[in-house]
Write a structure and sequence with these properties.
19% strand
C-alpha cells in the first residue's frame, strides 16, 4: 500500500471508529517513520501541526517503550497506553516496516475513553483498521 491509499484507509476506518463511539475517539493522527536516524512525519491531522515533531519524543515515550523488533517489521500490530494524557500519545498501529500511525486524544486519556461503554463497540473498528495493514503494509 502507498501513502495515499494508507491515509484514505485510515480516514475511512476512523470515520467508522468515531461513528461506533458516537464522537471522535482520537483528534490527533500522525504517520511517522522510525526507519532513519530521526523520525519522519508523513501525514498529520490534528491541533498541533507546528509543535508535533518538536514534541514527538516526549509525547510518544510511553508507547515507544512498547515497540520491539518484531513490531517494526510487520503491519497490523497495535498497542494502547492508559497513562497517556494531553499530548501523550494514546495508541499506535504499525502500518508497515518501521512506520506507525500514532493516535491521540488531547482532551482524554485511553483510561477515560475505555471507561465509556461505547468503547466496547468502537474497539472492534480499531482492530479492523489495524488488520488492513497486516494484509497490505504501507511501503514508503
Amino acid at each position: 500500500m502507498d501513502i495515499n491509499a494508507a491515509t484514505a484507509r485510515i480516514q475511512k476506518s476512523f470515520t467508522l471508529l468515531n461513528a461506533a463511539y458516537g464522537r471522535a475517539v482520537f483528534d490527533e493522527l500522525a504517520i511517522v517513520s522510525l526507519a532513519g536516524e530521526s523520525p519522519e512525519l508523513h501525514y498529520y491531522e490534528g491541533p498541533r501541526r507546528e509543535a508535533f515533531m518538536e514534541e514527538f519524543a516526549d509525547s510518544t515515550l510511553l508507547l515507544r517503550q512498547e515497540l520491539t523488533h518484531e513490531q517494526t517489521e510487520l503491519g497490523g500490530e497495535f498497542s494502547f497506553t492508559r497513562e497517556g494524557d494531553g499530548i501523550g500519545m494514546d495508541a499506535y498501529i504499525c502500518l508497515g516496516p518501521k512506520v506507525y500511525l500514532f493516535c491521540n486524544n488531547v482532551e482524554k486519556s485511553m483510561k477515560e475513553i475505555t471507561q465509556d461503554p461505547a468503547w466496547l463497540d468502537a474497539q472492534g473498528e480499531f482492530l479492523n483498521a489495524s488488520q488492513y495493514f497486516a494484509v497490505d503494509p504501507l511501503q514508503l
